[in-house]
Sequence to fold (206 residues):
Amino acid sequence: MKIKKIERSKHQQGRILVYLEGGDLLRVTEDELLRFDLYTGLDISPDTMVELQKCAARSDARVRAVRMISARPLSKQELQKRLRDKGTADADAEAAADWLEDIGAVDDLAYARTIVRHYSANGYGEAKLRDELRRRGVPREHWDEALADAPDPAETIARVIASKTKGDVIGEREQKKLSDLLLRRGFAWRDVKAALVALGEEIPED
Fold:
């Protein structure tokens, strides 16, 4: 199958479009262009075409992966899922994620610490932090080390209470709403109770 035309994509950096006789289109990168010595008029054999398509798919997965993590941090598992959702084969998605992990561009522990810092700063407790780590595909082996960076729950709870009460004295009904809010945010009841007791009134167990 002969190459009819080769041009660089106007929409995706690093993408090269190879137009074939008959209307087929190959999307490759500079690596494939050089490795297979592609040029206009080249007649590609069926075996070479198969190998070219495999290499192009692997390179495309890398290009997509780089673009994804450049837009926002991702865990290795999230990255692979997003690649698969975009049509990347499982093996190519895994290989691209492994490559980025090897060069340090994907770091699950660093990502876990970022998650803990972000949600702690926004007033969430350990249960919520663990839920987020699980939801985002961070390996369990990194959780404890990342959670060690979380502030004392009493400090975070005090900050949330201060933002909600503005320093005003609140009644039993408002305290109940506040305790429900803190529990939904992932704080343990013992920590919530201790903080609310500090407001001046003993909170019942139920």
In short: DSSP finds ten helices and three strands in the chain. Residues 107-151 form a domain with the Arc Repressor Mutant, subunit A fold (CATH 1.10.10.10). The chain has a mean pLDDT of 91. The longest strand covers residues 3-8.
